[in-house]
Amino acid sequence: MSIEVRGISKQFGTHAALDGVSILVEPGEFVALLGPSGSGKTSLLRIIAGLEQPDAGSVHFHGEDATARDAKDRKVGFVFQHYALFGRMTVFENVAFGMRVKPRANRPPESEIRRKVEELLHLVQLDWMQDRLPSELSGGQRQRVALARALAVEPRVLLLDEPFGSLDAKVRRELRSWLRRLHDEIHLTSLFVTHDQEEALQMADRVVLLHEGRIEQIGTPDEIRSRPASYFVREFLEIS
Amino acid sequence: MLPGLPVSLGVTVAAISLVVLLPLSTLVVATGSMKGAAFRAALASPRVMASFTLSLGAALGAAAVASAAGLLIAWVLVRHPFPGRNFVDSLIDLPFALPTAVAGITLTTLYGPSGWLGRPLEALGIKVAYTPFGIVLALVFIGLPFSVRTLQPVLADLDPEVEEAAACLGASRRQIFLRVLLPKLLPAWLTGFSLAFARGLGEYGSVVFISGNMPMKTEIAPLLIMTKLEQYDTAGAAAIATVLLAISFLMLLALNRFEAWSANPTGRAR
Ligand SMILES: Nc1ncnc2c1ncn2[C@@H]1O[C@H](COP(=O)(O)OP(=O)(O)OP(=O)(O)O)[C@@H](O)[C@H]1O
Ligand SMILES: [Mg+2]
Questions:
Q1: What ipTM was assigned to the predicted interfaces of this complex?
Q2: Taking burial as the number of CB atoms within 10 A of a residue's CB, which of A206, A235, B111, B199 is the most buried?
């Protein structure tokens, strides 16, 4: 399913966090949203998820306007930088949450929930951790639980906000290639925020470069490397 | 062991003994000198029983109202910055700072038959002063800060992203409150409830003016203790006080057990 934002603008006070941003993410694509701190990456992701309202512009999923829809009705998987797990629920219950809060009519039976949770925990390689609390997991494990939790409701698209931002370099590299492999398996349209150019260029099908709330360049990693569109892009990517 | 721990521990124990245990032990001694039959007789009179029912009911009701209102107030203070918030925030402590008699007189003036609020309410057929309702009202006033102040830090500590994560997973506001927020708030909420209840059970100054103190109708247990003391019925007063003490103590004990249990939610959430 595609994600499209058209002419998104957002002001915080007098400061324009986003200024006429338009992006189209094709179905099944893995796109990185790259930019320095404060460039508006998180704001854009939150607007796509419906956690924030834009001042202007619209958000479309599969060509369908979702700008007025509530976050809870958008079927968007969101992975937060600081995991945002439910601290008093076990790993199992965290992943099951999205299925348990469905309206009774389309809530799966307990056996189905159990099967689904176990399948997802297997997918993120945490089968043996289902009875632990989030506080008993490492950062990388928590983030994988957060990913399984987001996937449990079969979202139409996946948004990840610096999912590995608070992990150390080694774990980060491992999870990076793991996430890319996972994406190649399930082909879920994904928008991935990072301020690490290496991460973006290595993982993504296409990269969107954001700078002070505007798009500097959109293109495949090769295009951006070989034809940086501006002095800023050249500087930011340290292309000589 | 922390340096200085024996000293600070000693000071703490000594302080608690002097301030809490010593007065309480005189109470137990006074009651203990009564024969079992005398103790029962002192409590069995209908007037004493009526005062217990009233005090317990009013304290429970007021603690419930203060808890509900306290959650609302704490939520607004923490989550919705508005102009004048600091001022409102400092008003919360007023019932702590005010001498209780002042609170009592103020409430009585306000809600009395000719008061600002009392007169219009009476025109609507609602009597506040000199009714159990008035007592509950005074206890809510006294209990509110306990609820607000225990909830505030817990609410400030909540991560809004956790609620946003729940929303993205399709949870309604109601489900977010019941499944995500409530489990975290419950210990503090119950603490506030118990403190408001324990305080309300023993509250005297702010109640006696608005209650009118009619035996069997609006006479609270703490007032009855005073009355008995004035009649030199020390044993009778001590018997009532012991029962109040026991109720407060059991309440706090139950709370403690609950907190110990909820701090370690046995793995599974259901
Ligand atoms: N709730 C808010 N209130 C006021 N200003 C905000 C708010 N959220 C974001 N901003 C401002 O909007 C701009 C963009 O913020 P945003 O969080 O989207 O940046 P970012 O690209 O995600 O940065 P980082 O890499 O540091 O996470 C920043 O200047 C920030 O200060
Ligand atoms: Mg950000």
A1: 0.92
A2: B111
Question: Residue B80 falls within a domain, yes or no?
Answer: yes
SS3 A179: helix
Asked if residue B5 is part of any domain, the answer here is: no
- CATH number for the domain harbouring residue B196: 1.10.3720.10
CB contact under 8 A, A101 and B171: yes
Each residue's pLDDT tens digit, B101-154: 888 888 888 888 888 888 888 888 888 888 889 999 999 999 999 999 999 999
Return the residue matching tokens 């007063």.
B237
CB contact under 8 A, A74 and B168: yes
List Cβ<8 Å contacts ≥24 apart for B151-155. B151/B70, B151/B71, B151/B74, B151/B75, B151/B185, B151/B188, B151/B189, B151/B192, B152/B74, B152/B77, B152/B78, B153/B188, B154/B184, B154/B185, B154/B188, B155/B74, B155/B75, B155/B78, B155/B79, B155/B185
SS3 label, residue A219: strand
In whole angstroms, what is the distance from residue A193 CA to residue B150 CA? 38
- Indicate if ligand 1 lies below 6 Å from the C-beta of A194: no
Ligand 2 centre distance from Cα of residue B117 (Å): 52
- Average pLDDT (A172-184) is 86
Residue of A nearest to B173 (CA): A72
Q: Which of B157, B169, B176, B186 to mutate to test the interface with A (most CBs of A within 10 A)?
A: B169
pLDDT in tens, B165-216: 999 999 999 999 999 999 899 989 998 999 899 889 888 888 888 888 888 8
Distance from C-alpha of B224 to C-alpha of B46, rounded to nearest angstrom: 12
- Interchain CB contact of B80 with A (< 8 Å): no
Question: Hey, whose CA ends up nearest to atom 24 of ligand 1?
Answer: A37
Total domains present in chain B: 1
pTM: 0.83
Map residue A206 onto helix, strand or coil. Answer: strand
Domain holding B249, by residue range, is 38-263
Question: Residue B4 domain-assigned?
Answer: no
H helix or E strand, kind and range, residue A170: helix A169-186
Assess if residue B50 is contained within a domain.
yes
Contact predicate A200/A207, CB 8 Å: yes
Q: Is the CB of A41 under 6 A from ligand 1?
A: yes
Say if ligand 1 is within 6 A of residue A28 CB.
no
Chain B residues within an 8 Å CB radius of A73 = 170
